[in-house]
Each structure stands twice: as C-alpha cells, then as structure tokens.
C-alpha cells in the first residue's frame, strides 16, 4: 500500500471514528471480521484507526481556518469539512 493511500485511509477512518456513529461502525467492522478471514488484517487496521479517531481528534490535513467554525458532533460538521 502506498504511503499516500495509507495516510488517506487513516484520515478517513479517524474522521469516521470522531464524527460517526461508533456503535454502528464497530458492529459493521466486527461483522466483516467474523465473516471473512481474507480481510481480517484490513478490518483490524480500519477498526484501530476508527477507535483512535474516537478517543482523540483526528490528525486532519485540511487548513485550520476551514475547521475553525466546526463543532464536534454537529450535523453541520460534515458539510463544513466537505466544503
């Protein structure tokens, strides 16, 4: 896996852990882990990064000025980040 791709996947997973529904995400990935032995490494990697994002703010590569008006767990957060 390329370092750039890995960094982007880490960033997305951490954002999901920080802003997403943690119970839903963990249930989904644990189901994938149990169903397929082929993707266990990838699932464990994603779960690790999701949990990392859940316990601390993700290391985001967006300019700080874009995120200054965002508040955690606000539905407008995603719109603020995506813009």
Task: Report what the structure shows.
There is one protein chain. This protein has 83 residues and is mainly α. It has one domain (3-82). Helix content is 70%, strand content 0%. Helix 1 (3-19) crosses helix 3 (40-55) and helix 2 (22-35) packs antiparallel against helix 3 (40-55). The longest helix has 17 residues, at 3-19.
In the predicted model, the low-confidence regions spanning at least 5 consecutive residues are: none
Distance between the termini: 28 Å
SSE arrangement, N to C: HHHHH
**Helical coverage, percent range:** 55-70%
Structural class: mainly alpha
Shape: globular
Number of strands: 0
Calculate Rg over CA atoms.
Answer: 14 Å
How many distinct folded domains?
1
Count the DSSP helices.
Answer: 5
Features:
mainly alpha, 5 helices, 83 residues, globular
Secondary structure: elements and pairs:
Elements: H1 3-19, H2 22-35, H3 40-55, H4 64-67, H5 76-82
Helix pairs in contact: 1-3, 2-3
Give a quick precis of the structure.
This protein is mainly alpha-helical and 83 residues long.
């Amino acid at each position: 896996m390329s370092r750039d791709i890995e960094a982007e996947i880490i960033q997305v997973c951490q954002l999901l852990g920080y802003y997403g529904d943690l119970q839903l995400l963990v249930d989904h990935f644990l189901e994938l882990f149990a169903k397929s032995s082929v993707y266990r490494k990838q699932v464990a990697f994603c779960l690790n990064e999701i949990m990392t994002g859940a316990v601390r703010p993700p290391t985001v590569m967006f300019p700080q000025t874009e995120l200054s008006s965002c508040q955690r767990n606000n539905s407008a957060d995603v719109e603020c980040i995506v813009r």
